[in-house]
Amino acid sequence: MVNVTVGWYAMPVALATRHPPNDRHEGGIGMKLTFSRAVAALGVAAAVSVSSFAAAEDLNKAVKARRGYYQVISFNAGILFGMAKGQVAYDAELAKKAAGNLKAAGSIHADLMFPAGTDNGALKGQTRALPKIWSDAAGFAAKAAAFKTAADAVEAKSGDGLDALRSTLGALGGSCKGCHSSYRAKSF
Ligand code: HEC
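Above: the input record for the complex with heme C. Below: its predicted structure, written as tokens.
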């Protein structure tokens, strides 16, 4: 799980530690030290402004974006589940489009929409994202990867007839439930 805010902090810390204070007397390295200190100072200033900006409006935008993201997934999956149930007539072109959208959704860097501080405890009433998304980032990433694998498989078969499509949808539905049951609260 990539955390944008942590990324900004990490850079100046790495620069500052590369040149310990006793390097100061070694000619050219002293220059580098001064430079790295200046960069570090700028970096810290940037980190402070990024994090204070992120603390308000940006966090809400991230929540809106990811909720929209899951709505896009749900809309496209709904077309395919509708076909499987006989509520929507099977149409190879339509199925391929909807499945292609799911495949595309599976390959975007969704982790950018989960900055720290956007769990359902911090932003009550706005999100159902459980704190476990951050405390068990590897587990959450594995669920996202399972969705991607399932979406790719749906896309591969989507144009091959209703039975072929149906055979891939169980895993797709399972990938939604598999993530929601551990990482999404039942209500706001
Ligand atoms: C890797 C985890 C994960 C996977 C896979 C996943 N979801 Fe979700 N989903 C979430 C989380 C977390 C939220 C809550 C987002 C929030 O409230 O900030 C959510 C929210 C939603 C929402 C509500 C969006 C809103 O407006 O609040 C819908 C609908 C949804 N998911 C449908 C699906 C469907 C359908 C699938 C499978 C085809 C799926 N999701 C796969 C984690 C996942």
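Notes for the reader.
The pocket of heme C is lined by residues 63, 66-67, 70-71, 73-74, 77, 127-129, 140, 143-144, 147, 172, 175-176, 179-180, 183-184 (CB under 6 Å).
The two ends are 23 Å apart (CA to CA).
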